[in-house]
Amino acid sequence: MPKLVLFDCDGTLVDSQHMIVATMTEAFAKLGHAPPGRDGILSIIGLSLPEAIGRLNANLDAISVGLVADAYRDTYQAMKFRLAETAPLYPGALDALKALTSRDDVVLGVVTGKSRRGLDAILETHGLTSLFSVLRTADDGPSKPHPFMVVDAVAALGGHVSQTVVVGDTSHDMLMARAAGAFALGVSWGYHGRDELTQAGAQVLADNFGDVPVLAMKLLDGEV
């Protein structure tokens, strides 16, 4: 049975905060709505797009949420050619991913609130596509913190949640991991603070990407 390490994308693999804030701000403005503040936008990163927009403005009805989501997607697509600049990999990410994939007993995946099109663009831009054996996005099922993406990814790889680690930077990731019965490894370089990650169920915290392979294996081997 493989050991699975499932990564969030935004705020974990790539630092896309500036692009997300700019894109969300423009999407709201295009529809004549007051743009949400930066802190509010950072707090919803990781959720599916409709869920995120609904939380940013609870007064929007379903039709309005859909229109803002469409405006966001259009703006994002227009910026896609600049992903290497606007959504760079975090330092040490590639080396850590390669260290994990070099092990015969470990398989990697991504579980993200991004659309599949958005995730594919990120992975292709940074040459990461071949490192991941399973991808689960907002297109596949319920938004984080629902455990669906983790459970479905594990099933697709023939694994078990008891041998799965979720690596993420937000409380949404940690809550999803624990709800699925997987280990929760929080990273401190993303968009939610250490206390928020711990309160949401993070069992260990990594302060740099080089720590992730070691901490993930300690969790899987029962050493933490």
Automatic annotation (TrEMBL):
One GO BP annotation is: DNA repair
Question: Which positions are tagged coiled coil?
Answer: none
The GO terms this record gives for MF are: phosphoglycolate phosphatase activity
Name one matching Pfam family. HAD_2
Q: Which SUPFAM superfamilies match?
A: HAD-like
Name a GO CC annotation attached to this entry.
Answer: cytosol
* InterPro entries xrefs: HAD-like_hydrolase_sf (IPR050155), HAD-like_sf (IPR036412), HAD-SF_hydro_IA (IPR006439), HAD_2 (IPR041492), HAD_sf (IPR023214), PGP-like_dom2 (IPR023198)
Q: Which domain of life is it from?
A: Bacteria
Mind telling me which PANTHER family this protein's record contains?
HYDROLASE-RELATED (PTHR43434:SF24), PHOSPHOGLYCOLATE PHOSPHATASE (PTHR43434)
User: This protein is called what?
Assistant: Haloacid dehalogenase
Its organism's taxonomic lineage begins at: Bacteria, Pseudomonadati, Pseudomonadota, Alphaproteobacteria, Hyphomicrobiales
